[in-house]
Amino acid sequence: MDHKKTAEELLKHVGGSENIESASHCVTRLRLSIKDMSRVNDQAIKTLKDVNGTVNQGGQYQIVIGPKVEQVYKEFEIAASKDQAVSPSNEVKNSETPKKKNVFSRMIDVLMSCFIPIIPVIAGSGMIKVLCTILVSAGVLTNESSTLQILSLMGDGVFYFLPFFVAFTAAKKFNTDHFAAMVMAAILLHPNLMAMSAEGATSTSFIGIPLQLLSYSSQAVPIILAVWLMSYVNPIADRLSPAMVKVFLRPMLTILIVAPVMLIVFGPLGDFLGGYFGKFVDVMNTWGWIAVSINALIFPFLVITGTHNALIPLIITMFATKGFDPVLIVSGLVVNIAQAGAAFAVALKTKNNQMKGIGLSAGVASLFGITEPALYGVNLRLKRPFIAVLIGSTLAGAVAGITGVTAYSFVSPSIISLPIFIGDEGFISLVWVILSVITSFVLTFIFVWLLGFKDPVDEEKESKQTVTHTLESKDMNDSPVENVVEEHVASPLKGEVIRLSQVNDEAFATESMGKGFAIIPSEGKVVAPFDGIVVVISKTKHAVALVSDNGMELLIHVGIDTVKLKGNHFNLAVQVGDQVQKGDTLMVFDKEEIKNLGYDLTTSIVVTNSDRYPNIQLKTGNVTYGDHVLNT
């Protein structure tokens, strides 16, 4: 993957930096807030090789890339900064009013921005806790071991001090002072405040106002609200502070205003919401396998809409408060494996070589927790495999719920993260999760096989076969080799002539369709290479077949896989049956646009009845229209 090229193409097709209000990314998606969606070329973005799909949801344009999204995002930031620096429309950018998101979309956006960046350290810490469980289960350490206690401390640190991490990410999201935000977290977790709460006191007062004493370790809501308020207070404090004393007066005013509101209002509010969240978790635990099955059923739809990351704050809070998750990660695991099972089934059942390759690679990616290639590239595209995923994952979710599969660490569920499901029961819990994985994969695979799907036509192969079959079916009254008139084929394009063996397309490179040559075009025009008649034009306009006045059958095929463009960027100048003279324009194509979409424009020119010409001679190198290239 050329991350720089992909980023530049994406920036171009979303309308440039002046059309972007904000940009971020999650584990697999580039997430953009777009000012004017009419300027976004969604179709062009979808045709990029490194893009698995797009989703326009809740005022956010999401580009599904996969596990390399972070590298693409970095290049995207660089490209956007360069574009903004040279853009003459910066004034317009600042004056435009971005499209307002609804309240729910804004809340989801804030939560994801606060939690997604800290997932790696949470996952790493969680795996340390899993390691502790494994070491105890294997008898390597005892519960009283000081080594185990230190390891547990390492694993618990991020959860206990979660407000610090959320303070930093929230400050970045709300574009405010990072250090002042972390001061707010320090106030929440101050030992004296924690001690007052631990001693049994339930409340105190601040300047006569009642202040409820609570434990804020592992709490996220109070600090998010505090940093949000600070993003408004800090600029006001900055304006009110004289330059001579601004260095201390601004943060002082900010702390004095925000901290009391945080402790008096936001803290109890967070505790209130946390209480309802605890009840929600208890209900899910009570429902058991039903909750896992229902979540497994709806999870693929959350991925499609891009709202699945809204579950991340719930999961993190669940681990911080309960220490385990019996539903969300478990259902995510069976869904990921079901996506893999469906993709592998399609790969084995399809006769389309391209789909076979996509299915295999997407299936492997799903096993390792990256499901978008399978979801968008295979299962959702073919429809019935997606139905099989829903059935298989729902049934496997029931199996996981009945056997009590539970996640003890927040790591993306996949075959390599199965140890996160090992609990106090020991390795028997690993047996149950493996059973759930096998159930999900096998059932989904079987349902795909039984339901079937409409096998996609290998369009490129069909296009070539249609052209050659039509040529072969023409009544050309093939004459014996010795009576064949000598032919001279002029170059139909301007560019560099290369041998067919150098073409990155097996059908042409092996000369299975006939001998000939290829041209790497420098201009987007194709002309007639001899006097003759147009006998075939592909429905996608990228290929033309002619027969010369002396009986030579010639196929001109512009580009590799350009059939996928569905005729876009190609304009024909002739119709089937037209008589043409050497040099007449056959078609024009937008060379730069097609190239920018990632297509190889190497054009193959093949003599499809080359068995009639045993002594074909070829000239390579740079040519222009009309230069003799092939002689017989």
TrEMBL record:
One Pfam family per UniProt: PTS_EIIA_1
Topology within the bilayer: Multi-pass membrane protein
Keywords: Cell membrane, Kinase, Membrane, Phosphotransferase system, Sugar transport, Transferase, Transmembrane, Transmembrane helix, Transport
Protein's cellular compartments: Cell membrane
Main location: membrane
GO annotation terms (biological process): phosphoenolpyruvate-dependent sugar phosphotransferase system; trehalose transport
PTS EIIA type-1 domain residues: 505-609
PROSITE patterns listed in its UniProt record: PTS_EIIA_TYPE_1 (PS51093), PTS_EIIA_TYPE_1_HIS (PS00371), PTS_EIIB_TYPE_1 (PS51098), PTS_EIIB_TYPE_1_CYS (PS01035), PTS_EIIC_TYPE_1 (PS51103)
CDD domains referenced in this protein's UniProt entry, alphabetically: PTS_IIB_glc
Active site, per annotation: C26 (phosphocysteine intermediate)
Keyword Membrane: yes
Annotated transmembrane regions: 110-138, 150-171, 178-196, 216-235, 247-267, 287-315, 327-348, 360-379, 386-410, 430-451
PTS EIIC type-1 domain ranges (all copies): 109-463
Gene Ontology terms for molecular function: kinase activity; protein-N(PI)-phosphohistidine-sugar phosphotransferase activity; protein-phosphocysteine-trehalose phosphotransferase system transporter activity
PANTHER family per UniProt: PHOSPHOTRANSFERASE SYSTEM TRANSPORT PROTEIN, PTS SYSTEM ARBUTIN-, CELLOBIOSE-, AND SALICIN-SPECIFIC EIIBC COMPONENT-RELATED
Protein name as catalogued: PTS system beta-glucosides-specific IIC component
UniProt source species: Paenibacillus amylolyticus
Lineage summary: Bacteria, Bacillati, Bacillota, Bacilli, Bacillales
